[in-house]
Amino acid sequence: MTITTKPSDGQQLTPEQQAVLLIWQRVNTSLSAFYKLMAHFETAQAALQAGVSQWQDLGIHKKHLERHKQASGDEDTQFIAQIEQRMAAGEFQMLFQQDADYPQQLLGLFDPPPLLFYRGNKQRLNQAQIAMVGSRKPTQKAQRFTFDMAQYLAKSGFIICSGLAQGVDAQAHLGALSQPAEYAGRSVGVMGTGIDVCYPKQHQALFDRMIQEGGCIISELFPGTLPHKHTFPRRNRVVAGLSLGTVVTEAALQSGSLITARLTSEQGKQVFVLPSDIDNVNAQGCHHLIREGATLVYHPDQIISDLSHQLFAPEVISEIKEDSNAQSESLNSTSSFSDSAMTPNNNVNPILKPQKSVTISEHLQPLWVHIQFELQDLDALIAKTKLDTATLLSQLMELELGGAICEVGGRYQRL
């Protein structure tokens, strides 16, 4: 279903966009109800002007009918004014389906979001994306592989898309962000909450960093929407929809990542999976996906090769190949995906030692998001965090005592 709207100027909504927003509110972001109304009335303005009985004839849920019945012109005007005021204040912006910058990948979905609230660089939404998903409590090895693979793919020209959750999602975003200035901000986060609700709360520093460094965060839900078990599968479909393919780095059998993988497959896209030890219960979902036909990968170059045919513009393919070649030469030797990792006998111990879980205090999060698996000196961390030396050293000591980082020759890295 195509919605007849005009491009938004970022602050002033057109009459049709206002109607889309009000219909979206009336149906409480129900995709089925929204598209049922649009299919019948063709425009949101016509659907908004229709009576309750006309909605009822279409089988619209009684709760939606009640909201439509009780709504008043004054309330609608106030609601739109509040949204526009928040947009003017820079709290967020919006994209509608007919806007030039609306992500074209989503239009291929059966039920694309009628609108998107976003913060950050909207241009990221129409660049070639790869989704990376997995466990909220990954093993240390999976965290490292996720971080390094995201870093490699981002330097190769791709945007890394994930769901902003703890664990693998966070490592995917952080890996994509841990780039030189010319590769900065190559990450898109899809929220399962309203655009103004940080979830999980300890990720506020990650959210801020993504926006400040040129990434983008989006949500199809209204501002103020709190996390709920039903909102995250919706988020997963958008993650899958935005991306050319999905990489699962570690996931248990009951992981929500398998939902994203299934949605990716249903959309006719490729699912890539990193294998693990057969006794790693945290990776049973990955092994199940491989058995069901997902593509086993052990190096990001394999993903780039398989997805290159989807990059229709020759200049995009060329750019990604050039970036890939350049970053392969400059990739830190500590990365999981350096050239040595491609050799069959690289002396990597396949037995994963148990790792204790580390909880990072909220006041340490702004520093934690800048700590990488590669060693960094104090000057680099001061430049990134803007902390004074005394505060930085104190917080680094806290992280080190908590077992989250280690110090090697005056430089610091994640464990």
Please, could you describe this protein's structure?
The chain is built from 17 helices and 12 strands. Helix 7 packs parallel to helix 8 and helix 10 packs across helix 11. Helix 7 links the parallel strand 3 and strand 4. The N and C termini lie far apart (49 Å). 42% of the residues lie in helices and 11% in strands. The strands form 2 sheets. It has a 9-stranded mixed sheet with strand order 1-2-6-5-4-3-7-8-9, with helices on both faces. By secondary structure, the chain is of the alpha/beta class.
Blueprint of the fold:
Blueprint: H1 15-26, H2 31-41, H3 44-49, H4 52-57, H5 62-70, H6 73-88, E1 93-96, E2 115-120, E3 129-133, H7 140-155, E4 159-162, H8 168-177, E5 187-190, H9 204-212, E6 216-219, H10 231-242, E7 245-248, H11 257-266, E8 270-273, H12 284-291, E9 295-296, H13 300-307, H14 314-330, H15 365-368, E10 376-377, H16 378-385, H17 389-401, E11 405-408, E12 411-414
Parallel strand pairs: 3-4, 3-7, 4-5, 5-6, 7-8, 8-9
Antiparallel strand pairs: 1-2, 2-6, 10-12, 11-12
Helix pairs in contact: 7-8, 10-11
